[in-house]
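Worked example 3 (structure in, sequence out).
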């Protein structure tokens, strides 16, 4: 499966009082449409193009691709266009409530059934490097959208917190990354690195395609570990941590309505 790099627009959230979308249209995307776009918009709107079920599960339950097991191959291969609307005039949906709405959408439209298991496994702590943090803080990000672009060998982001950065690093590395930086602000991130075998750069583990549209895949670039320390002033330390696993017990393709 070949996909273009991902642009993710994530607004900050204000109030809402419901757990399901009022209406949701779901239909397959054309086979030659390689875009992936995910957006929350004012008025309780959620739109996604080119998203698959594994990506939706990752968003709904705050897990990474390697934390999802089971299910048929189509949950990774088939991609959908989703247009959903909540019954609200609020500008933003709080993150916790938005995740619950996605969980209900998966249960109602994809007949998703799953259970949770815990296991201990390898992880990383993200800590400040001895040289000090080098990321510029973006103090204007709180009032608008956060923009993130992922490509193989590249992370480019404006106004993101450590939660989003650790989530993406975990996807690339295939193991949890735990924020131990103590950083509470929003930051601008520009990072180019040489991916090692098995390291992907896409949203929820989806790798971008080769060629000019995918960003850096330069073997002369430093490793991710070196680039983090030299460019961002951050360091990864190996550790062990409990890992939440979601096991899919049942799922079905949705009807188009």
């Amino acid at each position: 499966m070949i996909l273009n790099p991902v642009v993710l627009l994530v607004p900050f959230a204000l109030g809402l009082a419901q757990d399901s979308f009022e209406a949701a249209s779901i239909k397959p995307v054309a086979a030659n449409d390689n875009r992936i776009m995910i957006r929350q918009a004012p008025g309780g709107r959620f739109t996604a193009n080119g998203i698959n079920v594994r990506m939706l599960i990752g968003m709904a339950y705050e897990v990474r691709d390697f934390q999802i097991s089971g299910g048929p191959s189509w949950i990774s291969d088939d991609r959908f266009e989703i247009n959903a609307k909540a019954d609200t005039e609020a500008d933003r949906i709080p993150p916790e409530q938005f995740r619950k709405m996605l969980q209900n959408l998966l249960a109602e439209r994809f007949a998703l059934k799953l259970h949770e298991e815990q296991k201990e496994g390898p992880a990383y702590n993200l800590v400040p490097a001895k040289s000090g943090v080098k990321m510029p803080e973006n103090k204007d990000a709180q009032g608008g959208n956060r923009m993130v672009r992922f490509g193989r060998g590249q992370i480019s982001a404006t106004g993101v917190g450590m939660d989003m950065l650790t989530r993406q690093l975990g996807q690339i590395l295939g193991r949890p990354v735990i924020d131990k930086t103590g950083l509470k602000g929003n930051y601008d991130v520009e990072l180019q690195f040489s991916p090692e075998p098995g390291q992907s750069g896409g949203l929820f583990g989806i790798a971008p395609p080769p060629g000019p549209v995918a960003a850096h895949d330069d073997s002369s670039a430093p490793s991710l570990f070196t680039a983090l320390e030299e460019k961002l002033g951050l360091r990864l330390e190996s550790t062990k941590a409990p890992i939440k696993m979601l096991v899919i017990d049942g799922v079905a393709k949705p009807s188009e309505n």
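Notes: The mean pLDDT is 81. The chain has five helices and twelve strands.
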